[in-house]
Amino acid sequence: MMKTITVLPGDGIGPEVTASAVRVLKSIFSTSNRNVQFIEKKIGGAAIDAYGTPLPQETIDQCHHSDAILLGAVGGPKWNQQSMQLRPEQGLLGIRKAMGLFANLRPVEAFQALVDASPLKQSFVEQVDFVIVRELTGGLYFGRPSERLGPNQDRVVDTLAYSRQEIQRVVEKAFQLALKRRRKITSIDKANVLESSRMWREVVNETAKRYPEVAVTHQLVDSAAMQLITNPSQFDVLVTENMFGDILSDEASVLTGSLGMMPSASLRADKVGLYEPAHGSAPDIAGQGKANPLATILSAALLLRYSLDMDTEAAQIETAVRQILNQGIHTSDLHVANHEDQIVSTSEMTDHVIHAINANRT
């Protein structure tokens, strides 16, 4: 049966890093029994230029007919003067909403070759291995439209809104994930201040009754932010609402030594998901062959694992990335101690990953 992966290259370095990930995926599929087609559509600034909107209807339609979506990055200074509704980032928010992608998974795992690049002590980061599960379609980002109030419009209101069902489905996803890992969940909220967080905590406690094998801890978001820096290895699965997850996942990215190593998956109840690197579009280096494709390649590994049930092949990609870094091979954005002379281009890094995958098969 034919599987379809929709590729949304986006802006800046997006086309380069998605092209690398597609090359890796095609290498994987060439030795498997999977029949997979790739269809490319526009999103973000590229879609604004072509269609006058960051999320064309034909992109939405194609994504609805896909088994998985691979996204590069959106945005750039070229579109900074657009109205809020026409900013490239609205394309990303819109496709998440249109596809019902309510749970974002952000794995945070230390790479031994990069621990010297972390701002934290090596002993703090070398055992780091956790996943942040962030609710994606509710909260402040999707509440009642923001308003400026008063005769001089000198007051503003943003609305944080959640239904119990929205909380339940992402919390359920976190517990399911915890069962496959070390069976520990840290639920992050601000229950000492926000009513939405008090409901969040209620739902977590209700769900925990059905998962007695999972240990649950509640933590206030300000404390969690501190603990991510002072004791990050304590965490296994963290689950939290939209804005808290947005902030904490970017904070956690420094633990690995580079945002360019951070993959992510945005999922719904079935196997359809959207996979993208955590980094931005980096328009200042677009087209120069300097972009680090590894976060997108690792996102492609998540695509294999969560949308196509290809765990073995996903692990092959992840192993290959580690091997290449341990050999000192890296793009210019990474700091690998004592290997500054082994800087390679985007395409060369992709070549090395594919070669390592193929070598490990023999």
Automatic annotation (TrEMBL):
Q: Indicate which residues the UniProt annotation says bind substrate.
A: 96, 106, 134, 222
Q: Which Gene3D superfamilies match?
A: Isopropylmalate Dehydrogenase (3.40.718.10)
Any idea which UniProt keywords this protein has? Amino-acid biosynthesis, Branched-chain amino acid biosynthesis, Cytoplasm, Leucine biosynthesis, Magnesium, Manganese, Metal-binding, NAD, Oxidoreductase
Residue intervals of the Isopropylmalate dehydrogenase-like domain: 4-353
Necessary cofactors: Mg(2+); Mn(2+)
Q: Report residues binding Mg(2+).
A: 222, 246, 250
Q: Which SMART domains match?
A: Iso_dh
Q: What is its EC number?
A: 1.1.1.85
Q: Which domain of life is it from?
A: Bacteria
The record describes how the cofactor is bound as: Binds 1 Mg(2+) or Mn(2+) ion per subunit.
Q: Which reaction does it catalyse?
A: (2R,3S)-3-isopropylmalate + NAD(+) = 4-methyl-2-oxopentanoate + CO2 + NADH
- Pathway assignment: Amino-acid biosynthesis; L-leucine biosynthesis; L-leucine from 3-methyl-2-oxobutanoate: step 3/4
Q: Which residues bind NAD(+)?
A: 76-89, 280-292
Please give the InterPro entries that the UniProt record associates with this protein: IsoCit/isopropylmalate_DH_CS, IsoPropMal-DH-like_dom, Isopropylmalate_DH
Looking at the keywords, is Transit peptide present? no
Q: Where is this site: Important for catalysis?
A: 141, 190
- Where is this protein localized, as stated in its record? Cytoplasm
- What does the similarity note say? Belongs to the isocitrate and isopropylmalate dehydrogenases family. LeuB type 1 subfamily.
> Which PANTHER family does this entry report, sorted A to Z?
3-ISOPROPYLMALATE DEHYDROGENASE
Give the record's subunit note.
Homodimer.
Q: What is this protein called?
A: 3-isopropylmalate dehydrogenase
Its gene name is leuB
